[in-house]
Specification:
- The longest helix is centred in the middle third of the chain and has 65 residues, at 35-99.
- The protein is 73% helix and 0% strand.
- The chain starts with 7 loop residues before the first helix and ends in a 15-residue tail after the last helix.
- It has helices spanning 8-25, 35-99.
- The protein is mostly helical.
- The chain has 2 helices and no strands.
């Protein structure tokens, strides 16, 4: 609902209707001239800066975590590359041995012997 086109009387009426809804819901009391509403607004204004600082700290921490994860990913990719090179060199060496007439021994995990 756009309030820009309402007359002052319509805005007052809508505000009073909304205050009644809040009172029925137990958020404000007419007995104390809706002081609870004003206190709630003041509290929200005070805490706004705290929430902004907290969000900024959380964002900084998430950026640090992301940077650490990227660093760890790079390290693990290097490890993977190194292991793959090692496996390939072993496979090449095994291929060379079998070509030279060596009998290839295969270890059987199930029976624990060659």
């Amino acid at each position: 609902m756009g309030y820009g086109r309402l007359t002052l009387e319509q805005v007052k009426k809508t505000a009073l209707e909304n205050l009644e809804k809040l009172e029925v819901a137990g958020f404000v009391k007419k007995a104390n001239n809706y002081q609870d509403l004003l206190n709630s607004i003041a509290k929200d204004i005070r805490n706004k800066n705290r929430r902004r600082i907290q969000r900024r700290a959380e964002l900084t921490k998430m950026k640090q975590t992301h940077a650490h994860l990227q660093e760890k990913t790079g390290y693990l990719e290097d490890q993977k590359k190194s292991y793959m090179e090692y496996v390939n060199s072993c496979m090449t060496a095994m291929g060379d041995k079998t070509k030279k007439g060596y009998r290839q021994q295969i270890f059987c995990v199930a029976c624990a012997r060659y």
